[in-house]
Write a structure and sequence with these properties.
This protein has four helices and seven strands. By secondary structure, the chain is α+β, with helices and mostly antiparallel strands.
């Protein structure tokens, strides 16, 4: 079941974000992600529209929207590749007519995922926090 997040979901959301980020973004040291978990908890999740995927009574994934920006989409590392990501993205698309996102180009699995889901690469830039190149991607309902 996909539903809007509740305050009680916050620990699970942060845990999923941290573990999935460290796995997918091994080009940055784990400490980088760990130090940003406080900002996720106090700033980014509260400042976004966040939805969770609850499976068997626990949160296994989530996405966050800020206007038309897909700011986050993460699934528990152990549950990746089982269909939760596409379902979360389908829900995000149903809430907006268009979406934009940034994804690290070194994260080839995520790049491939978004391309398969109808996103197109619009450009590239260097992320100021990591110094790593990221792709700017967009999807439009048209």
């Amino acid at each position: 079941m996909i539903r809007q997040h509740q305050p009680a979901d916050l620990d699970a959301i942060i845990d999923i974000w941290l573990r999935a980020s460290m796995k997918a973004h091994d080009f940055a040291p784990p400490e980088f992600w760990q130090k940003h978990s406080a900002d996720m908890r106090s700033k980014y999740i509260p400042g976004s529209e966040t939805w969770v995927y609850e499976h068997d009574g626990r949160v296994v994934g989530f996405f966050s929207l800020v206007d038309e920006n897909l700011a986050a989409l993460f699934v528990e590392p152990e549950m990746q590749g089982t269909g939760f990501g596409p379902k979360l993205l389908q829900k995000a698309k149903s809430l907006r007519g268009k979406l934009e996102l940034c994804v690290y180009t070194l994260n080839t699995r995520a790049m491939s995922f978004y391309l398969k889901q109808g996103f197109k690469e619009e450009g590239r830039r260097t992320d100021t926090h990591t110094g790593v190149q990221e792709s700017i991607m967009a999807w439009n309902h048209n």
